[in-house]
């Protein structure tokens, strides 16, 4: 189905409006203010429920057998004080254990979290980890989206390719914050990191067979070196693709050598990204609950960031359209972005739900621990995750009119961006702080600061080159793109 009229193709340039610059600055300043208030109001005595974790010892029991995972995440006050604290914790939960380990127990094998005081700064580093990881993955998934278009010889997306091209430049900025969080907070974020320093052997008090068995992968060198090497490699490939895109713009019309090179570099990125991206999820997110086992956690992490990245692309495209730019982009492109968001919303929900159902059905203690605390102690978050990240986008994006709307569509995309950010928060905070964590001013402030920084950075990058890939061989195919529905 054609449009039936000629469309003039010409280069466009973008200059960030003062309102957009002010809005992002206000967002960053507000984020810093809220973060400051949040830090000032943290109970620095270590007695607050949200400033100590439940990983000193985890005990799983079912109706027939007791499974114990003793971690030795000892406090700096010494093992003797820690043991005394443990005795009080066990005594205080004896009545609860007796009640919960009966035939009619609804959820499954019990995991008892015995609290260990953590420095108040742990709240800062854990939020920095969540935000840094989220925006690192968003930027990587923008590069993934970009590379897929080349590898698949996709033509429809050429007119919007500058947006993910700008987003991917945020990769090193976000990752630096991840490294800062790890350098200063790893021993309190990851109980396996503290256990590593103890050097316990079989037979020693506090020896943990599970953590010892995973030490070949869960160790400090792996935590810092492997992800850093991956990020450097992926960012190199992303920069190479951007460079080829710029060279293509300046090449004579009809020159396809840069396009062919882009396909090869895209393939190199996709292969390494597809096989190795789960390692970031295992090290940064999954190892917060180091005794837990899941074979699809990496896929789940990819799903939440992939759909969020597409939502960001959609918001930037619609914003640029509202400012009179991207004249070659039409409702058909917006519709296709909506279909991507709808499809991968369903995919995310599939992974989210069936990871839970498979673990619930198998009833294996070392798998149940992750969901037990999140379902029983964070039920509003558990249900909110489902509503924000599946129910709302699914119901709205079912409608053709919503995908083509200039205000409904970006609104749903923003809901998904916020929802999936707190999906990542939900992966981390219960594992670090046990049953008592909550979303406070610090959590909201850190998110607003990073969101403002990311938007400002992306819009700044969009100013640095033309918005139209003027010499891309599939440009005309994108210009005349029509979904036919």
Descriptive report:
- With 485 residues, the protein is mainly alpha-helical.
- The protein has one domain.
- It is 66% helix and 4% strand.
- The strands form two sheets. Strands 3-2-4 form a three-stranded antiparallel beta sheet, sandwiched between helices. A two-stranded antiparallel sheet has the order 1-5.
- A hairpin with a 4-residue loop joins strand 2 and strand 3.
- The chain starts with 17 loop residues before the first helix and ends in a 6-residue tail after the last helix.
SSE order and pairing:
Layout: H1 18-40, E1 52-53, E2 57-61, E3 66-70, H2 79-100, E4 110-113, E5 116-117, H3 122-151, H4 162-167, H5 171-189, H6 191-198, H7 209-213, H8 220-250, H9 257-285, H10 297-322, H11 331-362, H12 365-376, H13 379-397, H14 400-404, H15 408-433, H16 441-462, H17 475-479
Antiparallel strand pairs: 1-5, 2-3, 2-4
Helix pairs in contact: 1-16, 3-5, 3-9, 3-10, 3-15, 3-16, 5-6, 5-8, 8-9, 9-10, 10-11, 10-15, 11-13, 13-15
- Stretches where pLDDT is under 50 for at least 5 consecutive residues are 47-109
Output the number of helix runs: 17
Which series of helices and strands comes N to C?
A: HEEEHEEHHHHHHHHHHHHHHH
Largest sheet: 3 strands, antiparallel
What integer is the average pLDDT?
85
How far apart the termini lie comes to: 10 Å
Q: What is the general shape? A: globular
Order of strands across the main sheet: 3-2-4
The SS-based structural class is mainly alpha
Classify the helix fraction into a percent range. Answer: 55-70%
Strand residue percentage? under 5%
Computed Rg:
24 Å
How many runs of DSSP E, i.e. beta strands? 5
Whole-number count of domains:
1
